[in-house]
Design goal:
- This protein has 1893 residues and is of the alpha+beta class.
- It is built from 75 helices and 28 strands.
- The strands form 11 sheets. It has a 6-stranded antiparallel β-sheet with strand order 22-21-23-24-25-28. Strands 3-2-4 form a 3-stranded antiparallel β-sheet. The chain has a 3-stranded antiparallel β-sheet with strand order 17-16-20.
- Helix 29 crosses helix 32.
- It is flat, with a radius of gyration of 47 Å.
- 44% of the residues are buried.
Length: 1893
C-alpha cells in the first residue's frame, strides 16, 4: 500500500487540476490536512473551503471504475493506482487524514469519544447473536438487551430468557420508551448528558466538510453499480458492487461507533437537504456523473405502486363486455371508485394450469393519498441511501450502519419518516427478491427498532399517514396473488381469495409487513386512530375478505387424490398472522366501556363485508355439499368483537346483532366446519389424503384454537341463542347427515351417508351439541377460570412439563408478545391444580423430566371431559384422559368399574346468552332424545355407549337448566298447543319427560320386521280402538320441520305458517318419502322418557326391577340433593342421577317414577340377530374383545418371559458366585455345564465344540484419569483456569516407563511395569454363553439381514441373542472342572522352600499349549482369534511401548496388562477398596476366570529366559558378581526394587500352567509381599530427613539380634537405611529437596499406617484375583481393618496370629531366604545405579500410590457461566469461533464439533479427541445446546442434558433460554456410566458418526 499512498500523495493517478495550489501536492497528507484545517478555521474561510472541495473532488472522484472491465476509458483512468482496490484505499486514507485535521486518526477517534453522552447502548447485532429479553422490565414485547448490559443490570427474580436472534436486533438499554429504567445497566443508568462538556467547534469542523462529499461518492458508486436490467439483476453483480464498497461502509460504521458527537454530525450531513441539492444537481459537464444520474432516474421509475403496465389498462377505461364491476364498495379507500376486474390475457400467468376460470385478478384502487402510489422523490442523502439499501436488498453492512445511527434522536425521527416513505418500494423489492428470507429478516431488524417505540409510531402515524400506507401496501401485496373463489357457486362467484400455492404465501414473504403492522397496533394511540378511521376499517375488512374461504377443500368421492397439496400450512399461517394477530392487537385496546364506539365500528364494517361476501358467492340458505374451508376470518372478527363487547364493554348484545336472516347465514359456514370435522374423523375424507386430517388437527391445535375453533363455536352459540331452537337443532342433524337415522324403525335408508359412517357421525352431532351447550369460554367465564379449565384439560390428558403446558395453553396470541399475559396467574393456577413430580433417576432408566400431574381433588371435582374433547388434537388423548380418570377412581376407592365421563357443573351463563338454553327445551331435541333412547333400548344397529352417554348428558343439562316457572298444577291442564304434531305437549323438558307416547307412524323399507307386525295389530281388539282414542299416530320429519321454520323466519307472518312448505328444487336432499320402496307402518310404543330411562337402568344392570327410587328409603335425599356417591360412576349411576334430578324438579315426575317402578316391567325382547345385523355387530365390541385377548396374551407372554429370564440368569456360569461347599465325602469332580442361548442345549465346553461367553471388549482410559489429589478438577470457565494432565495416573506411568527405558535393557523394562492405564482393554459380559459355531451362524444371519441395526456386523458387533446387550466378541470357556476349589481344600504341608522350587519348575516348562490341545483344535483356534480381537480393540500406540517394534516382549507386556486393567477397573467399580466384601459386584457377570485362561495360554508361548526370570532374584541369593558388569549401561537389568510388584504377580501367575494350585498361588503372594514390604521401607527412608534416618538406623540396629528381627519393621528399616547409605541415594539431598520433605514427626503409628497404605493396593488386587481364580468370597470389614482382613484371607498371616496387641504389618512377612542377605542384594543393585544417576535413582523408587477414584470435571452450578465463556471462545487450533463449540468433560479440552476447520485425515475434531483422550470414548458438552453427546468408537448418541431449569426440564438447543442449573443426580448417573463402561448397554439410540463429529 505504501507505493500507492506515495503516488497519491503526489497527486495520485490524475493530472493535477488547475484550481489546486501546487504546494498542496508536494506535502504529505497530514500536512495538507493541517493546512486546510487552519485555512478553514479563519473567519473568512471561503478560499479554504474551495481548496478542500477541489481536493475532495479529485480524491473522491466517482470516475473510479467499479470493476476493472467496466469501460475501456475508465479503466485507463485508473492506471497507476495499483488497480481499483488501491485507489479506494487511497481515498479512505485521505478522508481519515482530513477528518483528523493533520493529527493521528486514532487520537482523533479517542478525542471524539470523550464527548459521547452515552445514555443509550444501541449496540446493533446480526442474526445468531445471543441476547436477552426481560419481561419484567420490558414495556414493549420486542425489548432486548445485549449480554453485557443484561449482566450489568439487576434482573434477579425477573422473568427473563436468553435467545438467539433470528433477524438481528439492537440493545434497548437506556431507552425508557421501550423498557423500565429499573432494568438499565450500570453504564446507562446515569443521564450523563449534563456533565459532558460541550464539543469544541474545531474538532469536528473538517468532518462537516468532508463527509457530505464522501457519502455522495458512496451514492455515486451505488448508482454506478446498478443496472436496471430487463430481468432482475443477478445476485452476483449486486454482491460484487457491495464487496468493493465494503471498506467505505465499514468506515462509516466506525464513525458511528465514535459516539454521540460524531453521530450528530452524520445526522446533519445525512438529513441536510441543501447539501444534497448542491451535490446532486451540480453535475455540470461531467459525463460519468451524468451517466450515473440517468441510471438513478431509471431505477426510480419503478418505485411507485402504479406499475407501468397498469397505466395502459386503466388509461383506456371502457368497461368492455368481458369485465365486470367488482361488487366491493369503496375498495381500498374511501373514494369509492370501483376497480375494474381485468381479465386481459397477458397477465394470466395461471393459464398454465389449464383453468380458464381461474383468471388472475388485478384490482386497481385509488386511495386518499396519491403519494403512496407515486414515484419516489429524494430530498436528502439519507433518503437516497435508504433507496439504494432497498434496491440492493438490504446488505448487512448498510443495515448495521443505518441502525448504529439510531441513538441520535433527530436521526431516528428522520430515518423513520424516510423508512415509511419507502414502504411501498420495500414491498415491491421484497416480492421480487430471490432471497426473501434473508431480506425479511433485515427489514424486520430495522422496523422493529423504529415501530416498537410508541411515541415515534404515534408521531409518524400523524405526520406520514403510516396506517394508510401500511394497509394499502399490504392490500397491494396480496392483490398480486388473487384467484376466483370456488366456494358455493363456482360459475357465478364474484369473490376473490388469495391463492395459497403462491410463493408469496407459501414462503411467508408477507410476514415482515404484517409483523410491522401488528407491532404498531400494539400501541394504544395508534390502534385508536385505526379504530376511529372508517375508511381504514373498510379497507382492512376488504383485506381480510381476501382470506375468507381460501384453501377450499372438495371431498374426493371416487379415487384418491394423486397429489396431496401442502398449501394448508400457508393458509393457516396466513390467517393467524395476517388476520388473527392484528385482530388480537386491536382487541387488546377494547377493554373498557369507553371503547364501545370502536367495537361498533368494527362490527358494522365486518357485517357489511360479510354481507358482500354472501352476495359475491351467491349464498341463499344451503351450503354446497362436499366442500369445506377452515378459513372464515370475517366470521371470527365479528365473533371476537362481539365477545369483547359483552364481556368488557357492557354493550347490549342485541344492539350489535343483525336480523334473523343474516344470523341464519352466519351460522351455516362455521356449522359446516364442525360437521366436516366429524366427517374427517369418520374417515369420510380419506381419499383427500393425510393433509385433510392435518387441517382438522391444526384447526383445534393450541396455537390456533383460540383464533379459529373457539370463535366459531362462540358464534354458533350466539346464533343458537337468538334463532328458533327447533330450526337450529334440525339444521345441526341435517348438516351432520344423520336425519334418516333418527327414526323409531329398526331399519332405515340413509340417502346421504354410508351405514358404516352413521354411528360416528351421530356421535359427532351429539358431541357437538354437548360442547355447544356446555362450553362457557366466551359466555361468562373470567380469564382465570378459563386458564384453570384449559390447564386442567391438558393435565388430565397427560402429565406435562412446564414448558409444554405453556405451549399447549392458548394465550391470547397478543402478537409476537414474548409476554405471556398473566404469567403470574399461570404459576398460581398451576400450583393450585397440579403437583410437581421431580425427575427420578434410576441408573439405566430413561432420563425423566420434571412433570406436573393433576391433584386428586382436580380429578374429583374439576375433570371436564367436554373441555378435553374440545382441546384434543389426537383422538387417543381423550381415551388417555379417561384411562387416567379410571385409574384415579380405582386407586382412591371411589369407583371400581369402568366409569363414564363425569357430569360437571358449569359456570353460570352471562345474561345475554340465556337464549342458548332454549335449545334444551325444544320439542325437536326432545323427539330426538326420545327416539335415541328407544333405539338404544331396542338394540337397533349403529348405536353405541357413547351415543347413550351424550343423550343422558343432554337430558341432564336440560334438567339443570330448566325454566323454574313450571308448576305442577298448571302442567296437568296443558292448553291446546298450536303445533303441527302432538308428540309432546309443551317445550319444557321436565314435563315432557313424563309424557307417554303411544303410537308412532314410521316409514320403513318393506323388508323391515315392523311391516309384518302391522297386520296382526289390526286384528287385536284394543289396538285400533286405542288408535282412535289417541288421535293419530305421531309423524315427524326433521327436514320438513326445518324448512317450515325457515319459511316462517323468512316470511315473518304467522298467516303463512300453515301453508305447505314449498318443495325446494335446489335441495340436494331427497325428501324422506321419495324412495319408492318405503312403506308406512304404525308402531306401538307406549313409553315416556322416564319409563325408557328406568328400563335402561334394568338393561344396563342386567337385573329385572333393579331401579328402586332412593327417596322411598331416605326422604333426606330430596332435600339435600348433592350426593357425592352420584359424582362418579358408569351409566347406571348416570341414570339414577337423572331420575333423582327429574323427581326433584317436579312432584308429578316423582309420582310417575314411583308408578313405573311398581309395575313389573316386562322383559326386554331378546334380540334376534339377522345375518345382516351380525355383520354390523358393534365394531367397538369386537375391538374391545380383541383388545382383551391381546392383553391376556401379553400378560401370559410377560410371565413366561419373566420365568425364562429368571432361569436364564441362573446359568451355571463358569465360576460360581457361591463358593462350592464340597464336603470331603464327595471328592468327585463335576464338569461345568453351559447353556447355549442360541440352540438351547446344555453341556460342557469341549475341545471340538467350545462354548464361549458373550463379551464386549472396549478400550478404556478411565484408569488413566485417576488423580492423586482429593479436590476434583473443575471445568475451566475463565482464561486463568486451565487443566494440565500432568498429575493423572496415565501421565505418571508414562513418565516412569520412558525413564526406565532410558537406562535399562528394553526387555527388562517391559517386565517391570504395567501398561493399559490409557487404552487398556476392558472385558465385560452379560453372563450368557453360546456355542462358538452357533455364534458364527448367528453372525452370518445378521450379516444378511437388511435391517439397519445400530451396530456394525462387519466389525464383529452383535447383540446377545437372549438379553440384547451389546457385544463384539466371544470368550472361549476353558474345558475342565467347575470345582477347582477341591484342589486347595486339602491343605498342603509342604514348606515354602519346596513350593518355591515347584513354582520355578512349573514356570520353566516349555510354553506349549497343554498336550491335550497341542494339535490345532477348534478351541485353540478360538483362543487365538479372541486374542486377536483383544489386541485390535485398542490402538497400536496403546500396545507398542518397546523400542524394537513387534518384539515379543511387547505382546507379553500387553497380555498381563489386560489382566491388570480388568482387575483395577473392578476395584474402582467397588469404590476403590474391598471393604464391602461379598461376591464380585457383577456376580455371575464376571469373565475374569475365562480371560485368565486365554491370557495364560498365550503367555506361556513366550517363556522368559530363566536367567532373567525375576522369580530367581526374589528367592535366591546370587553369588557376588563382578560389579563391573554394568559397563555397557544399556544392558543393565531393571533393579528388582524398581519393579512393580502387582505386575510381577500377574507375570508369575500367568506363567504357571492352568489351573493353578492354591498353595502355589499363596507361595507366590508371600514371596512378592517381602519385596513389596522392602519397597515400602525404601520409600519411607527416602521420605524422611537425615536426622530421622540416623535415629532409626540406630534404634533398629539394637534390636537386630532379637528372635523376631525379620518381622520387625524397625530392624528392617534400619538395615535398609544402612545398606542404601553405602550408595549415593541419600547424598543428593540439597536444600531444595528438604522443602519437599514433610515436616511431620514420624511416630510408630504414622509409620505403620504409611507401610500399610503402601501395601494395600497390592493386597486388594491379589484378593480380587484369588476370588476369581478360586471362587472364595471376599470378607467384608471396616476400613481400618482392611489390611489385616485381606492379609489373613490371602494366607499371609499365620493362623495362630493373636490380635490383642495392635496389628503390625511386618508380622505378615515370610522370608524365603534370610531377610538381611536378600535385602542387601537388592539394595546393591540400586546403589550401583545411583553411583551414576543419583537423581533418577530416587525418582524411580516406587512411591506410595495415592490414586483417588476417577471423576468427570466438576461443573458450575449455573449453565450461564459455561455458556458465556465458551460460546464466543475461539478454537485453539483454527482460531475461529466454532459454529458448534463443545467441551470434553473428562479433560476440559475445547473442540469444534463437526468443524471442517479442524479436520485431520478425514477425522473431525471430536472423534479425534475421543480417541486420544478416552481411547475411543468421548463425553462432550455441546455448548450451544446444553446437551451431552457420547462418542463410543464409530457410534455416537445424544445422552441428554445435566442442566435443568427451575421446573426440572431440559432445554435442548437453549430454545427457551431460561436459566439452567446443574442436576447433580443426572451428572452422577453420567459419571457412573462412564466409570462402569455401560454407555453401550444403557443408552439405546446409537447411530454411526462417520468420523464427522
Amino acid at each position: 500500500m505504501a507505493a500507492a499512498a506515495a503516488a497519491a500523495a503526489v497527486g495520485g493517478p490524475q493530472p493535477p487540476q488547475p484550481e489546486l495550489p501546487a504546494p498542496g501536492l508536494s506535502l504529505d497528507k497530514a500536512a495538507t490536512a493541517a493546512h486546510l484545517k487552519a485555512a478553514l478555521s479563519r473567519p473568512d474561510n471561503r478560499a479554504g473551503a474551495e481548496e478542500l472541495q477541489a481536493l475532495l473532488e479529485r480524491v473522491l472522484s466517482a470516475e473510479r471504475p467499479l470493476t476493472a472491465a467496466a469501460d475501456g476509458e475508465e479503466a485507463a483512468a485508473a492506471g497507476g493506482g495499483g488497480g481499483p482496490g488501491a485507489a479506494e484505499e487511497e481515498a479512505l486514507e485521505w478522508c481519515k487524514c482530513l477528518l483528523a485535521g493533520g493529527g493521528g486518526y486514532d487520537e482523533f477517534c479517542a478525542a471524539v469519544r470523550a464527548y459521547d453522552p452515552a445514555a443509550l447502548c444501541g449496540l446493533v447485532w446480526t442474526a445468531n447473536f445471543v441476547a436477552y429479553r426481560c419481561r419484567t422490565c420490558g414495556i414493549s414485547p420486542c425489548m432486548s438487551l445485549c449480554a453485557e448490559c443484561f449482566h450489568q443490570g439487576d434482573h434477579t427474580g425477573h422473568d427473563f430468557n436468553m435467545f438467539r436472534s433470528q433477524a438481528g436486533g439492537a440493545c434497548d438499554c437506556g431507552d425508557s420508551n421501550v423498557m423500565r429504567e429499573s432494568g438499565f445497566c450500570k453504564r446507562h443508568q446515569i443521564k450523563s448528558s449534563s456533565n459532558i462538556p460541550c464539543v469544541p467547534k474545531d474538532l469536528l469542523m473538517m468532518s462537516e466538510f468532508v463527509l457530505p462529499r464522501f457519502i455522495f461518492c458512496l451514492i455515486q458508486y451505488l448508482r454506478e453499480g446498478y443496472n436496471e436490467p430487463a430481468d432482475v439483476p443477478s445476485e452476483k453483480d449486486l454482491n460484487k458492487v457491495l464487496q468493493l464498497l465494503e471498506p467505505q461502509i465499514s468506515f462509516l460504521e466506525d464513525l458511528t461507533k465514535m459516539g454521540g458527537a460524531m453521530r450528530s454530525v452524520l445526522t446533519q450531513v445525512l438529513t441536510n437537504q441543501q447539501n444534497y441539492k448542491d451535490l446532486t444537481s451540480g453535475l455540470g459537464e461531467n459525463a460519468c456523473a451524468k451517466k450515473s444520474h440517468e441510471k438513478y432516474l431509471i431505477a426510480l421509475k419503478s418505485s411507485g405502486l402504479t406499475y407501468p403496465e397498469d397505466k395502459l389498462v386503466y388509461g383506456v377505461q371502457e368497461p368492455s363486455a368481458g369485465t365486470s364491476t367488482l361488487a366491493v364498495q369503496g375498495f381500498a379507500g374511501a373514494a369509492g371508485t370501483f376497480g375494474q376486474l381485468d381479465s386481459s390475457d397477458e397477465e394470466d400467468q395461471d393459464g398454465s394450469q389449464g383453468l380458464g376460470k381461474r383468471k388472475r385478478v388485478k384490482l386497481s384502487s385509488s386511495t386518499k393519498d396519491q403519494s403512496i402510489m407515486d414515484v419516489l422523490k429524494h430530498k436528502s442523502f439519507l433518503e437516497e441511501l435508504l433507496f439504494w439499501t432497498i434496491k440492493y436488498e438490504f446488505p448487512q453492512k448498510m443495515v448495521t450502519f443505518l441502525l448504529n445511527m439510531l441513538p441520535d434522536q433527530e436521526y431516528k425521527v428522520a430515518f423513520t419518516k424516510t423508512f415509511v416513505q419507502h414502504y411501498a418500494f420495500i414491498m415491491k423489492t421484497l416480492k421480487k427478491s430471490h432471497e426473501s428470507d434473508t431480506m425479511s429478516n433485515r427489514i424486520v431488524h430495522i422496523s422493529v427498532q423504529l415501530f416498537s417505540n410508541e411515541e415515534l409510531a404515534r408521531q409518524v402515524t400523524e405526520e406520514c399517514q403510516l396506517l394508510d400506507i401500511m394497509v394499502t401496501v399490504l392490500l397491494y401485496m396480496m392483490e398480486s396473488c388473487l384467484i376466483k373463489s370456488e366456494l358455493q357457486d363456482e360459475e357465478n362467484s364474484l369473490h376473490v381469495v388469495v391463492n395459497c400455492g403462491e410463493a408469496l404465501l407459501k414462503n411467508n414473504t408477507y410476514w415482515p409487513l404484517v409483523s410491522d403492522f401488528i407491532n404498531i397496533l400494539s400501541h394504544q394511540s395508534v390502534a385508536k386512530r385505526f379504530l376511529e378511521d372508517h375508511g381504514l376499517l373498510v379497507t382492512w375488512m376488504n383485506f381480510v375478505s381476501f382470506f375468507q374461504g381460501m384453501n377450499l377443500n372438495k371431498r374426493e368421492l371416487n379415487e384418491h387424490v394423486e397429489f396431496e397439496s401442502q398449501t394448508y400450512y400457508a393458509a393457516f399461517a396466513a390467517e393467524l398472522e395476517a388476520c388473527a394477530q392484528p385482530m388480537w392487537g386491536l382487541l387488546s385496546h377494547c377493554k373498557v366501556r369507553e371503547t364501545q364506539e370502536y367495537t361498533r365500528n368494527v362490527v358494522r364494517y365486518c357485517l357489511e363485508a360479510l354481507q358482500d361476501w354472501f352476495d359475491a358467492i351467491n349464498f341463499v340458505d344451503e351450503p354446497a355439499p362436499n366442500q369445506v374451508t377452515f378459513h372464515l376470518p370475517l366470521h371470527r372478527y365479528y365473533a371476537m368483537f362481539l365477545s369483547k363487547a359483552v364481556k368488557c364493554q357492557e354493550l347490549d348484545l342485541d344492539s350489535v346483532l343483525p336480523d334473523q336472516e343474516m344470523l341464519m347465514k352466519l351460522m351455516i359456514h362455521p356449522l359446516q366446519i364442525q360437521a366436516s370435522l366429524a366427517e374427517i374423523h369418520s374417515n369420510m375424507w380419506v381419499r383427500n389424503g393425510l393433509q385433510i386430517k392435518g387441517q382438522a388437527m391444526t384447526y383445534v391445535q393450541s396455537h390456533f384454537c383460540n383464533s379459529m375453533i373457539d370463535p366459531d363455536i362462540y358464534l354458533l352459540q350466539v346464533c343458537a341463542s337468538r334463532l328458533d331452537p327447533d330450526y337450529f337443532i334440525s339444521s345441526v342433524f341435517e348438516r351432520f347427515k344423520v336425519v334418516d337415522l333418527l327414526t323409531m324403525a329398526s331399519q332405515h335408508q340413509n340417502t346421504v351417508l354410508d351405514a358404516e359412517h352413521e354411528r360416528s357421525m351421530l356421535e359427532g352431532a351429539l358431541t357437538f351439541l354437548v360442547i355447544l351447550l356446555s362450553l362457557r369460554l366466551h359466555l361468562g367465564m373470567s380469564d382465570d377460570e378459563i386458564l384453570r379449565a384449559e390447564m386442567v384439560a391438558q393435565l388430565c390428558m397427560n402429565d406435562r412439563t412446564h414448558s409444554s403446558l405453556l405451549d399447549l395453553i392458548p394465550e391470547n396470541p397478543n402478537p409476537k408478545s414474548g409476554i405471556i399475559p398473566g404469567s403470574y396467574s399461570f404459576e398460581s393456577v398451576l400450583s393450585a391444580v397440579a403437583d410437581f413430580k421431580a425427575p427420578v433417576f434410576e441408573p439405566g432408566g430413561s432420563m425423566q423430566q420434571g412433570m406436573y400431574t393433576p391433584k386428586a381433588e382436580v380429578w374429583d371435582q374439576e375433570f371436564d371431559p367436554v373441555m378435553v374433547i374440545l382441546r384434543t388434537v389426537y383422538r387417543r388423548d381423550v381415551q388417555s384422559a379417561m384411562d387416567r380418570y379410571t385409574a384415579f377412581l380405582k386407586q382412591s376407592g371411589k369407583f371400581p368399574g369402568n366409569p363414564w365421563p363425569p357430569y360437571k357443573k358449569r359456570t353460570p351463563l352471562h345474561p345475554s346468552y340465556k337464549g342458548l338454553m332454549r335449545l334444551l327445551h325444544c320439542k325437536t331435541l326432545h323427539i330426538v332424545l326420545f327416539t335415541l333412547l328407544y333405539k338404544i333400548l331396542m338394540d337397533h344397529q349403529n348405536l353405541s355407549e357413547h351415543v347413550l352417554c351424550m343423550v343422558l348428558y343432554l337430558i341432564e343439562l336440560g334438567l339443570e337448566n330448566s325454566a323454574e316457572e313450571e308448576s305442577d298444577e298448571e302442567a296437568s291442564v296443558c292448553g291446546p298447543e298450536r303445533c303441527h304434531d302432538s308428540w309432546f305437549p309443551g317445550s319444557n323438558l321436565v314435563s315432557n319427560m313424563r309424557h307417554f307416547i303411544n303410537y308412532v307412524r314410521v316409514r320403513v323399507p318393506e323388508t323391515a320386521p315392523e311391516v309384518k307386525r302391522d297386520s296382526l295389530a289390526s286384528t287385536s281388539s284394543d289396538s285400533l280402538s286405542s288408535l282412535q282414542n289417541s288421535g293419530t299416530a305421531q309423524v315427524f320429519s326433521l327436514v320438513a320441520e326445518r324448512r317450515k321454520k325457515f319459511q316462517e323466519i323468512i316470511n315473518r307472518s304467522s298467516s303463512e305458517a300453515n301453508q305447505v312448505v314449498r318443495p325446494k328444487t335446489s335441495s340436494k336432499w331427497s325428501a324422506p318419502g321419495s324412495a319408492p320402496q318405503l312403506t308406512t307402518a304404525i308402531l306401538e310404543i307406549k313409553e315416556s322418557i322416564l319409563s325408557l330411562l328406568i328400563k335402561l337402568h334394568h338393561k344396563l344392570s342386567g337385573k329385572q326391577n333393579s331401579y328402586y327410587p332412593p327417596w322411598l328409603d331416605d326422604i333426606e335425599i330430596l332435600i339435600q340433593p348433592e350426593i357425592p356417591k352420584y359424582n362418579h360412576g358408569d351409566g347406571i349411576t348416570a341414570v339414577e342421577r337423572i331420575l333423582l334430578k327429574a323427581a326433584l324438579q317436579s312432584r308429578m315426575n316423582k309420582r310417575i317414577i314411583e308408578e313405573i317402578c311398581r309395575k313389573v316391567t316386562p322383559p326386554v325382547p331378546p334380540k334376534k340377530i339377522t345375518a345382516a345385523e351380525k355383520k354390523t355387530l358393534d365394531k367397538e365390541e369386537r375391538r374391545q374383545k380383541a383388545r382383551e385377548r391381546q392383553q391376556k396374551l401379553l400378560a401370559e407372554f410377560a410371565s413366561r418371559q419373566k420365568s425364562f429370564m429368571e432361569t436364564a440368569m441362573d446359568v451355571d456360569s463358569p465360576e460360581n458366585d457361591i463358593p462350592m461347599e464340597i464336603t470331603t465325602a464327595e471328592p468327585q469332580v463335576s464338569e461345568a455345564v453351559y447353556d447355549c442361548v442360541i440352540c438351547g442345549q446344555s453341556g460342557p465346553s469341549s475341545e471340538d465344540r467350545p462354548t464361549g461367553l458373550v463379551v464386549l471388549l472396549q478400550a478404556s482410559s478411565v484408569l488413566g484419569q485417576c488423580r492423586d489429589n482429593i479436590e476434583p478438577k473443575k471445568l475451566p470457565i475463565t482464561e486463568e483456569e486451565q487443566i494440565y494432565p500432568w498429575d493423572t495416573c496415565a501421565a505418571v506411568h508414562d513418565v516412569r516407563l520412558s525413564l526406565l527405558q532410558r537406562y535399562f535393557k528394553d526387555s527388562s523394562c517391559l517386565l517391570a511395569v504395567s501398561i493399559g492405564w490409557e487404552g487398556g482393554v476392558y472385558v465385560q459380559t452379560c453372563g450368557h454363553t453360546l456355542h462358538i459355531d452357533c455364534h458364527k451362524s448367528y453372525m452370518e444371519s445378521l450379516r444378511n439381514d437388511q435391517v439397519l441395526q445400530g451396530f456394525s456386523v462387519d466389525k464383529g458387533e452383535f447383540t446377545c441373542p437372549l438379553c440384547r446387550q451389546f457385544a463384539n466378541s466371544v470368550l472361549p470357556c476353558y474345558p475342565g472342572s467347575n470345582v477347582e476349589s477341591n484342589l486347595w481344600q486339602r491343605p498342603s504341608n509342604k514348606s515354602i522352600q519346596d513350593l518355591i522350587k515347584e513354582v520355578e519348575e512349573l514356570q520353566g516348562r516349555p510354553g506349549a499349549f497343554p498336550v491335550s490341545i497341542s494339535s490345532e483344535t477348534n478351541l485353540s483356534k478360538e483362543m487365538e482369534s479372541v486374542m486377536k480381537d483383544i489386541k485390535n480393540t485398542t490402538q497400536k500406540k496403546y500396545r507398542d511401548y518397546s523400542k524394537t517394534p513387534g518384539s515379543p516382549d511387547n505382546d507379553f507386556l500387553f497380555m498381563y496388562s489386560v489382566a491388570r486393567t480388568n482387575l483395577e477397573l473392578e476395584l474402582i467399580h467397588r469404590g476403590g477398596n474391598l471393604c464391602s466384601g461379598g461376591a464380585s459386584t457383577a456376580g455371575k457377570r464376571s469373565c475374569l476366570n475365562q480371560l485368565f485362561h486365554v491370557l495364560a495360554l498365550h503367555m506361556r508361548l513366550y517363556s522368559i529366559d530363566s536367567e532373567y526370570n525375576p522369580w530367581r532374584k526374589l528367592t535366591q541369593l546370587v553369588e557376588e558378581v563382578n560389579s563391573q558388569q554394568g559397563n555397557e549401561e544399556q544392558q543393565l537389568e531393571v533393579p528388582i526394587l524398581y519393579h512393580d510388584v502387582t505386575s510381577l504377580l500377574l507375570i508369575q501367575i500367568l506363567m504357571m500352567p492352568q489351573p493353578l494350585r492354591k498353595d502355589h498361588f499363596t507361595c507366590i503372594v508371600k514371596v512378592l509381599f517381602t519385596l513389596l514390604y522392602t519397597q515400602a521401607l525404601v520409600a519411607l527412608s527416602v521420605k524422611c530427613n537425615e536426622e530421622d534416618r540416623s535415629a532409626w538406623k540406630h534404634t533398629g540396629a539394637l534390636k537386630k539380634n532379637t528372635c523376631d528381627a525379620e518381622k520387625s519393621y524397625e530392624v528392617l528399616l534400619s538395615f535398609v537405611i544402612s545398606e542404601l547409605s553405602k550408595g549415593k541415594l541419600y547424598h543428593e539431598e540439597g536444600t531444595q529437596e528438604c522443602a519437599m520433605v514433610s515436616p511431620i514427626a514420624w511416630s510408630p503409628e504414622s509409620m505403620e499406617k504409611y507401610l500399610q497404605d503402601f501395601c494395600l493396593p497390592f493386597l486388594r488386587i491379589t484378593s480380587l484375583l484369588q476370588h476369581h481364580l478360586f471362587g472364595e468370597d471376599l470378607p467384608s470389614c471396616q476400613e481400618e481393618e482392611e489390611f489385616s482382613v485381606l492379609s489373613s484371607c490371602l494366607g499371609l498371616l499365620p493362623t495362630f496370629y493373636q490380635t490383642e496387641h495392635p496389628f503390625i504389618s511386618a508380622s505378615c512377612l515370610d522370608w524365603p531366604v534370610p531377610a538381611f542377605d536378600i535385602i542387601s542384594q537388592w539394595c546393591f543393585e540400586i546403589n550401583s545405579f545411583t553411583e551414576r544417576h543419583a537423581e533418577q535413582g530416587k525418582a524411580l523408587l516406587i512411591q506410595e500410590s495415592r490414586w483417588k477414584l476417577p471423576h468427570l470435571l466438576q461443573l458450575p452450578e449455573n449453565y450461564n457461566t459455561i455458556f458465556q465463556y465458551y460460546h464466543r471462545k475461539t478454537c485453539s487450533v483454527c482460531t475461529k469461533v466454532p459454529k458448534d463449540p463443545a467441551v470434553c468433560l473428562v479433560c476440559g479440552t475445547f473442540v469444534c464439533l463437526k468443524g471442517l476447520c479442524c479436520k485431520q485425515q478425514s477425522y473431525c475434531e471430536c472423534v479425534l479427541h475421543s480417541q486420544n483422550c478416552g481411547a475411543g470414548t468421548g463425553i462432550f458438552l455441546l455448548i450451544n445446546a446444553s446437551v451431552i453427546i457420547i462418542i463410543r468408537g464409530h457410534r455416537f448418541c445424544l445422552w441428554g442434558s445435566v442442566y435443568l431449569d427451575a421446573h426440572g426440564e431440559e432445554d435442548r438447543d437453549l430454545r427457551r433460554g431460561k436459566p439452567l442449573y446443574i442436576c447433580k443426580e443426572r451428572y452422577k448417573v453420567l459419571e457412573q456410566q462412564w466409570i462402569s463402561h455401560t454407555f453401550d448397554h444403557i443408552n439405546k439410540r446409537w447411530g454411526p458418526h462417520y468420523n464427522g463429529l
